[in-house]
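Researcher: Please translate sequence to structure tokens.
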Amino acid sequence: MKKYIAITGASSGIGAATAKAFARRGENLILIARRAELLQSLKDEIAQIAPESDVVVKICDLACSKNVRALWEELKSYELKALINNAGFGDYGAVGEQNLDKTEQMLQLNVVALTLLSSLFARDYKYKPVQLINISSAGGYSIVQNAVAYCASKFFVSAFTEGLHRELAQDKEAKMQAKVLAPAATKTEFGSVATDDADYDYDAAFKRYHSSEEMAEFLLALYDSDACVGAVNRDSFEFSLSKPRFDYAGK
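Model: Translation complete:
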């Protein structure tokens, strides 16, 4: 039976770069996102890169919880070897001044959808040799001015995933691995969406940043390792693999 790597938020940025990186390894893919045209374009590109890879496209707005549950029912007809929860976005602005509709959607996507998918994956695959990689942020380990709600959502991602990693480690029968990828500034659509500025300039905003392709390579390094956390240092922009970072009160 074919096995697949499912990637949410696959239509652009880190998600699309990760899909192409895994395709070059000959992996079969399930690409999940809202934008059908971009997903089809990515599927066509992968067909040129890795014609032997089977690529399945799933159009889904994960900001709606009922869509997440429906998606999982569809995924039950496939055997997964990994789930990459990459879907998410940022929202810049002082607390009390944000667009609350946007903030609510961000929390639904960054926190609720990720938690539901991770939990469903753990329920069905805990005792299989699979990997869950949840995309957090450097802002999931340090708070950034004017991005408090976004950072809080990514602190949740980091804490939730590290906690799951610890739980799995305590179950001698579990074979699933849970991991966190924490990028720093990465040139994607993130800046434009977070600031509501279509002309957002990464060169003006940051002295250094990574490309989506570089982050995809870091993700593969995490995937190939036994580490829990793969993180970019915000100051040096060096990538490192490590054990969980948060204190754990378990046995």
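Researcher: Any highlights?
Model: The longest helix spans residues 100-125.
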